[in-house]
Amino acid sequence: MIVDNKNVLVLGVGMTGISVLNFLKSKTNNIYVYDDLPYPDIVRKLNNAGIYDVVIVDSKSKLISNMDIIITSPGFPPYHEVIVKAKSSLIPIISDIELAYHYRKSSNIYGITGTNGKTTSTVLLTEILKKDGFKVEALGNIGMPTIERLTNCSFDDNFVIELSSFQLEYTNDFRPKAALILNITEDHLNWHGSMDSYIAAKLKIFANQKEDDLLVLNYDDEILRKINVNNKPKLMYFSVKNPLNEGIFIKDGKIVFKTENLQEEIINIEKIKLPGKHNLENICGVLAICKHLGVSKDSIESVLSSFRGVAHRIEFVATKNDVEYYNDSKGTNVDSSIKAIEALKGPIILIAGGYDKNADYTRLIEALKDKCKALIVLGQTKEKIKDTAYSNNFLNVYIANDMREAVDIATNLSSPNDQVLLSPACASWDMYNNYEERGDHFKKIVNDIME
Fold first, then answer.
1. Would residue 389 count as lying in a domain?
2. Which residues does the record give as ATP binding sites (predicted)?
3. In a domain, 297, yes or no
4. Could you tell me if 283 and 351 lie in one domain?
5. Fewer Cβ neighbours under 10 Å: the N or C end of the chain?
């Protein structure tokens, strides 16, 4: 196997790196670790996880060139010094997903990727499959580490895995039985370097699929519609805008499944509790996999008539003085935040800003003009977003130094029937460890002002 008794370098001591290190302990005695953190912090994180028998290297170490394989984490972009050095030495680099796949004990893997909607779709598919009697678990950014579960399971277990472009970038043999690409829009260009590289990473989800596998694509997404699949997996489209000859689409207020031989109405969209047009896209993509797996109509309708979404995605927090507060901290790019704006009725007071991923915020400003009465910006991108707003004649912009000040400004500006929406259109890493921490902080501040 690919790491047995090999010299293995693990990049990162976050959740991904620690899960990989715990797995490697039974496979090899030659484990090396690198992280950008100061040495004492690396030691502390390793010791807290009960990991001691590893060698910590720095980026200049000659030992790096002696590695047989490197397992990287999402925090290490392709231009990172250690990655560049490894590539120049022709050392294989893989992600935790690829490692888990090689040592898997079940091949019932259903992968979901896309710029937006991954988490919601992953949880939704998992809930529907559970309702239908599948032994199934959601992995990726949800639940236990992928390497831990895929290597400690039964052959008949099923796994729905949320897959980022960072993880897919370093896959070679990974092959899900069903793959869903929800959409592709500009994101993470600071990591991938170009839109072409970002797209190429996303498309690796089906690179190894065969004729008996399923690939689901969004027909309404221009990039995905133009993809040449080369007839490898079975291809199924979904659409919320166009009737299709085959696939999942909406007709007369109902979600319809159509093949060459049948047309079936799955559910009336009025019964669906998940708000927003973007969630109809997520639902249609998920239902394509459900139909492929033979899931019953009753199970689908039961879940869709009760499922209200996931935390940090247009999550209702509280109401005070007839003002509603929504947490959309998972809105980490422009398209995601536009979808959140579209999902609410308004008037909206938008809180945005965070880590700069080299995004263009023009479309965000255009989207908020008709619905937003004010924009509050914070974080690394606050000046960039403010300047974009001014240049597009949206002038009601306020700058906040932190989340508490942003919520205070929003509350003071609000009137009855307004909606305060945190949807940053940016990652969280300038002020928080992750979007969950950011969203939880927002919710705590909002709940504090309710008292």
1. yes
2. 114-120
3. yes
4. no
5. C
Binding residues for ATP: 114-120
The CATH number linked to 118 is 3.40.1190.10
Per-residue pLDDT tens over the stretch 199-217: 999 999 999 999 999 999 9
pLDDT digits (tens, 9 = 90+) for 49-99: 999 999 999 998 989 999 999 999 988 999 999 999 999 999 999 999 999
pTM of the model: 0.82
**Nearest-5° angle of CA 143, CA 19, CA 89?**
130
Residues placed in the known binding site: 114-120
User: Which of 304, 332, 351 delimits the end of a domain?
Assistant: 304
Question: How many residues are present in the chain?
Answer: 451
- Same domain flag for 130 and 108: yes
Q: Reading across the β-sheet that carries 8-11, which strands appear in turn?
A: 55-56, 31-34, 8-11, 69-72, 93-95
Q: Is 318 exposed, middle or buried (0-12, 13-18, 19+ CB in 10 A)?
A: middle
Cα–Cα distance measured from residue 73 to residue 363, given in angstroms and rounded to the nearest whole number: 31
Residues of the chain under the 70 pLDDT cut: 1, 231
- How far the first Cα of the chain sits from its last, in Å, is 58
Same domain, 137 and 285: yes
What are the phi and psi torsion angles at 166 (to 5°)?
Answer: -65, -45
